[in-house]
Design brief:
This is Probable quinone oxidoreductase. GO terms for molecular function: mRNA 3'-UTR AU-rich region binding; NADPH binding; quinone reductase (NADPH) activity. InterPro entries: ADH-like_C (IPR013149), ADH-like_N (IPR013154), ER (IPR020843), GroES-like_sf (IPR011032), NAD(P)-bd_dom_sf (IPR036291), QOR-like (IPR047618). It holds the Pfam family ADH_zinc_N. Keywords: NADP, Oxidoreductase. The chain is α/β, with parallel strands linked by helices and 331 residues long. It is 30% helix and 27% strand. The chain is built from ten helices and 15 strands. The strands form three sheets. Strands 3, 4, 5, 6, 7, 14 and 15 form a seven-stranded mixed sheet that branches. The longest helix is centred in the middle third of the chain and has 21 residues. The protein is globular and about 60 Å long. The termini are close together.
Length: 331
């Protein structure tokens, strides 16, 4: 038996229950991992609230973690007990002291990267990779708008886009977050609680608009994001922290021949080769200093409900990591 967070009904942070669970042994194609650090992501909130549907109830949330392999299922090659692995997006259930997951969804974590950093870079780093390298290929001279620029994904997105030679405009909610966004490579920071971001983007770009908007906020920013685009601009909506955007009449995109996409990491890491290529580039950028990972908040796993509440109320910035309560002692 190990400790894990379980969800028996959809709702607020209070539905996250801390209890004993039975893990068992890995089957063919699986490995068992003793978890060292867990990445907290907004997708966890979406599953908890029912925005995204789970296959069955109850469930253990969490899609990102770093851990040590403790058992290898039949037919597995390439992994052994003691290997340190990172994984994201392929198997829910990381809010636990141990987890069984598909072996082909894990990647080796370089020794130079600490578990807390690895757990906060996998999902967010892979997301940023497909956003700037595959979904819309950011190049020198591009002007990009990043909403939630001080968040876990936003922080990395601003850094990577800046390193690729783009002019980065970021939106944040507070002066404190504006300082961080500047440090993370934003050339222009808009505090959207104090000024109209559409008008400010129009001013910054001399009325030309931006080449691409990366919008993880959704309903509250969606229409304004479209208004910020130049002709043939790309609207990339990859999240909905404020709610699902209203439907878009197709002809409205024709006014500026806009592109609109709602991408998902699973479609950009569908093959083992794609996963390894993306993770390799993310880890290389961390090692070289292109990406500075901000692990600004750590919570014991048993306090996941508080972590969710703080994330939803925008009290956090950078990455949030959950640490199994048994780290430092025998689970």
């Amino acid at each position: 038996m190990v400790k894990a967070i379980r969800v028996y009904e959809l709702g607020g942070p209070e539905v996250l229950k801390w209890e004993d669970v039975q893990i068992g042994e890995p089957n063919e194609g699986e490995i068992r991992v003793k978890i060292q650090a867990i990445g907290l992501n907004f997708i966890d909130v979406y599953f908890r609230k029912g925005v995204y549907k789970v296959a069955k109830m109850p469930f253990t949330p969490g899609v990102e973690a770093v851990g040590v392999v403790t058992a290898v299922g039949p037919g597995i090659t390439g992994w052994k007990v003691g290997d340190v692995v990172a994984y994201a997006g392929g198997s829910m259930g990381s809010y636990s002291e141990e987890q069984i997951l598909p072996a082909n969804k894990a990647v080796p974590l370089p020794p130079s990267i600490e578990p807390t950093v690895g757990a906060s870079i996998m999902l967010k780093g892979l997301t940023v990779h497909y956003l700037v390298r595959w979904c819309f290929k950011v190049e020198p001279g591009h002007i990009v708008l990043v909403h939630a620029a001080a968040g876990g994904v936003g922080s990395l997105l601003c850094q990577w886009a800046n390193a690729l030679g783009a002019t980065v405009i970021g939106t944040v909610s507070t002066n404190e977050k504006a300082v961080q966004a500047k440090e993370d490579g934003c050339h222009h920071v808009i505090i959207y609680t104090e000024e109209d971001f559409v008008a400010r983007v129009n001013e910054i770009t001399s009325g030309n608009g931006v080449h691409v908007v990366y919008d993880s906020v959704g309903k509250d920013t969606f229409q304004g994001s479209l208004a910020c685009l130049r002709p043939r601009g790309f609207m990339v909506n990859f999240g909905q922290s404020s709610g699902t955007p209203d439907p878009v009449p197709l002809p409205s995109l024709g006014a500026k021949s806009l592109f609109l996409t709602r991408p998902s990491l699973m479609h950009y890491s569908a093959t083992r080769d794609e996963l390894l290529e993306a993770a390799g580039e993310v880890f290389a950028n961390v090692a070289s200093g292109v990406l500075r990972v901000r692990v600004n908040h750590k919570y014991p796993l048993s306090q996941a409900a508080q972590a969710h509440a703080d994330l939803e109320s925008r009290k956090t910035s950078g990455s949030v990591v959950l640490i199994p309560d048994c780290i430092g002692r025998t689970c």
